[in-house]
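One chain is below:
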Amino acid sequence: MALTIRQETQYRGNDRWQWSVWLDGTPEELDDVDHVMYVLHHTSPNPVREIRDRSTSFRLDTFGWGAFRIYARVFHKGGQETPLYHDLELRYPDGTLTTA
């Protein structure tokens, strides 16, 4: 299994969502990760976020109002880097997608 980014979202009202992203992979793949640098939309507060917590699968918890592409650089313990990206999907309670 290759590392991927997964997401979870919760609509909070007034076109705002609480959302999370994290790495998904085998335990061995996750054990090889030192940290993840997520790059969010440039309008986000602190758009570059570094996460080092293996116990949460390098989970980033935050909030926002629009969908966008999240970029991630996975830094492995051996010095290698893996670039990833994930298109954040935000849905209203009726299931419709937001527009960016």
